[in-house]
Design brief:
mainly alpha, 5 helices, elongated, 0% strand
């Protein structure tokens, strides 16, 4: 179900370009490199920079299931697939 859901969300353009894990050819390493480059650039420009980092190792456990079901319904997921969450 995971791979089908990712394909569906990718096909319907529901992923942000900053969600590196879900784009083919991009990884967490790419996200970290972009973050570090941005921080260095801001430092060079003498701009204050703030980063908030979150550990989302188990994001499914952090999201209230009613909110998850609501969002999936808004993205067009329905039927048997939605009832198994």
């Amino acid at each position: 179900m995971n791979s089908q859901l990712i394909c569906y969300l990718e096909f319907n353009k529901h992923f942000s370009s900053s969600q590196y894990k879900f784009w083919r050819g991009l990884s967490i390493t790419d996200a970290v490199e972009k973050l570090v480059a941005h921080i260095i650039n801001q430092f060079d420009e003498h701009v204050n920079t703030l980063a908030t980092l979150c550990d989302l190792t188990k994001p499914f456990d952090c999201v209230p299931h009613d909110v998850l079901i609501y969002k999936l319904e808004r993205y067009g997921v329905s039927g048997v697939e939605l009832s198994h969450i």
